[in-house]
Write a structure and sequence with these properties.
Elements (H helix, E strand, L loop, with lengths): L8 E5 L4 H12 L3 E6 L2 H9 L3 H4 L2 E5 L5 H13 L5 E4 L14 H29 L2 E6 L12 H21 L4 E8 L5 H14 L3 H10 L9 H12 L10 E4 L8
Parallel strand pairs: 1-2, 1-4, 2-3, 4-5, 5-6, 6-7
Helix pairs in contact: 1-9, 4-5, 5-6, 7-8
The structure holds NADP nicotinamide-adenine-dinucleotide phosphate.
The site of NADP nicotinamide-adenine-dinucleotide phosphate (NAP) has 29 residues, from helix 1 and helix 7.
């Protein structure tokens, strides 16, 4: 299937590793021009350096810290100067693990600023040219915790639910302009973040990391973690032209982990 991405400019946030890197690579494979952003630009340079020269030439590297609104604005200025983005992949880091009880106000505010407000602000600036062109795709990476809160990930559960409300509201406002707005919810996809969360659980429960992984896999109907490439394939489809009538949706990529219908 031709996803119609070869003439599109795609901004991928959180592109230095994990899900964001896999999404950026999948977009490059579809022929898109990719603006890859994160704090560690050297990690983006590293994966870009491994691409064939023709593909590497379609990737630009951008530094951004989603916790700093001035940094977000600098990125948006650079993207607009390059002609804007036709596709926006809202992705970034997850918060430290922890429960609801005892989480200080400062941590809630910090989480909201970097995981929600910065994405709302950036999207608002980039969506105006999409409206003018009457075409756009906004895909925001969430978490299975939006539909089934994950124990010991209180900040993620709470703030991503707010992002889901924002995404659905935005979808309703811009659908008539040819812009789709969707979320994709990872369950457990094997990345550095999942590795560090497993490590955290192992230390907290006095188990080996292998025991934690075994238990975690056993709870997933697919009996395994997903790969970043499996996740990226769904995001790339939603970003493409054929997915033009999918909007306001939350798509699970979780091996069946969310138990509700
Ligand atoms: N993997 C899963 O199964 C899973 C499940 C549920 C939810 N999620 C969520 O999905 C998102 C991506 O997951 P992942 O597993 O790929 O995580 P990851 O391996 O930790 O990668 C996170 C990406 O976000 C970037 N990032 C982190 N903080 C940032 C900041 N302040 N400003 C700009 N970029 C920042 C990181 O790059 P730099 O450090 O270079 O900035 C990196 O590229 C995370 O929010 C995660 O919580 C993942």
């Amino acid at each position: 299937m031709d996803l119609g991405l070869s003439d599109k400019r795609v901004l991928v946030l959180g592109a230095s590793k994990g899900l964001g890197q896999a999404i950026a690579l999948a977009m490059v494979a579809e022929g898109a021009t990719v603006m890859a952003a994160a704090r560690s630009v050297e990690r983006i340079e590293a994966w870009r350096g491994a691409l064939p020269p023709e593909a590497a030439a379609r990737v630009s590297v951008h530094e951004v810290d989603l916790a700093e609104i001035a940094s977000v604005d600098r990125l948006v200025d650079a993207v607009l100067a390059a002609g804007g983005a036709n596709v926006l992949i809202n992705n970034g880091g997850g918060p430290a693990p922890g429960g609801v009880v005892g989480t200080p106000t400062e941590a809630w505010n910090k989480g909201f600023a970097s995981m929600a407000a910065s994405l709302f602000h950036l999207t608002d600036r980039l969506i105006k040219p999409m409206i003018e062109k009457r075409w756009g795709r906004i895909v925001t990476i969430g978490s299975s915790g939006i539909e089934q809160p994950i124990p010991n990930l209180a900040i993620s559960n709470a703030i991503r639910a707010s992002v889901a409300g924002w995404s659905k509201s935005l979808a309703n406002e811009v659908a008539e302009h040819g812009i789709t707005v969707n979320m994709v919810l990872p369950g457990r996809v094997a990345t550095e973040r999942v590795e560090s969360l497993d490590q955290n659980r192992a230390s907290k429960t006095n188990q080996s990391i292998d025991a934690v992984r075994l238990q975690s896999r056993a709870e997933i109907p697919a009996k395994r973690y997903g790969t970043p490439e499996e996740f990226a394939a769904v995001v790339t489809f939603l970003a493409g032209t054929p997915a033009s009538y999918v909007t306001g949706s939350m798509i699970r990529v979780d091996g069946g982990a969310i138990r509700s219908i």
